[in-house]
């Protein structure tokens, strides 16, 4: 059970980092030229949806049975990698 709690806390911390990253991206998008603002805001919207899906999955994991939690953890790892990559890609394009 400790492993689950530590994992969930680690993932919550990562979501908090993504929240801060989204704020930074939003600030960059707001400073962009008009033609790029829409593109940036579309990317931000996608990232926000991915972050919310990760948050929902994490909430489900917190209340799942031990057997279900182990299966969900594998799915979470894949989703986490994809979301993290999306954030890194967005930051590289927002320079």
Question: How would you describe this structure to a colleague?
Answer:
It is a single chain. With 95 residues, the chain is an all-alpha fold. The chain has one domain (2-93). It has three helices and no strands. The chain has helices spanning 2-31, 34-63, 66-93. Helix 1 (2-31) runs antiparallel to helix 2 and helix 1 (2-31) runs parallel beside helix 3. The chain is elongated, with a radius of gyration of 15 Å. The termini are far apart. The model has no long low-confidence stretch (mean pLDDT 84).
Helicity range of the residues?
over 70%
From the N-terminal CA to the C-terminal CA, the straight-line distance is 42 Å
Q: Please identify the structural class as seen in this structure.
A: mainly alpha
Individual helix count: 3
Keywords: Coiled coil
Protein name: Coiled coil domain-containing protein
Organism: Thioalkalicoccus limnaeus
Task: Write a short abstract of this structure.
By secondary structure, the protein is mostly helical. Helix content is 93%, strand content 0%.
What key attributes describe this structure?
single chain, 95 residues, mainly alpha, coiled coil, Coiled coil domain-containing protein
